[in-house]
Specification:
The N and C termini lie far apart (42 Å). By secondary structure, the protein is of the alpha+beta class. β5 (100-109) and β6 (113-121) form a beta hairpin. The mean pLDDT is 94. It has helices spanning 20-28, 30-37, 128-153, and strands at 9-16, 51-55, 65-74, 78-83, 100-109, 113-121. α1 crosses α2 and α2 (30-37) crosses α3 (128-153). The radius of gyration is 15 Å and the shape is globular. The chain has three helices and six strands. The protein has a single domain (9-153), classed as 2-Layer Sandwich (Alpha-D-Glucose-1,6-Bisphosphate, Chain A, domain 4), CATH 3.30.530.20.
Length: 155
């Protein structure tokens, strides 16, 4: 793995005009996470070592199962999970691929706001046949998801 690769990681940051506790709840409560992220996580729990497999609710992607293996839950600072990026082909077995790591980090920002940063790393380990497309789609996807959480958290 080349740690300096420009295509190994995606990083997005946004200042959300809401206290850290509110943003943390939107990330760490599975039902809230699912509502802005677009996955049905009703009845689920985010705890280290747990794997969650539930259907995507975003229009056009309902046939896809969202699967994430929770890595870290450190309130109210860090939530991370491993997943297979852009794993949208229901006929493909992604289980032999090395997953990427998604890490959300929260920091206080001026004015009772919160700086939310998401980093997805490990794309250099995605099979070459789908690496570029997974990176491209998730690069766009994280921009959209950051907008989604801002809308979800701010009135």
């Amino acid at each position: 793995m080349n740690p300096s690769s420009e295509t190994d990681r995606i990083e997005r940051s946004v200042v959300i005009n809401a206290p850290r506790e509110r943003v943390w709840r939107a990330l760490s409560d599975p039902q809230e996470f699912g509502s802005w992220f677009g996955v049905n996580l009703d009845g689920q729990a985010f705890s280290p070592g747990r794997t969650t497999r539930e259907p995507i609710t975003a229009k056009g992607y309902e046939h896809i199962i969202w699967e994430a293996h929770i890595d870290r839950v450190e309130p109210p600072n860090v939530l991370s999970f491993h997943w297979h990026p852009y794993a949208i082909d229901p006929n493909t077995d992604y289980s032999n691929e090395e997953p990427t790591l998604v890490t959300f980090t929260l920091e206080d920002a001026p004015g009772n706001a919160t700086m939310l940063t998401v980093v997805e790393s490990g794309f250099d380990n995605v099979p070459p046949s789908r690496r570029l497309e997974a990176f491209r789609m998730n690069d766009r996807g994280w921009s959209i998801q950051m907008e989604n959480i801002v809308r979800h958290v701010t009135p």
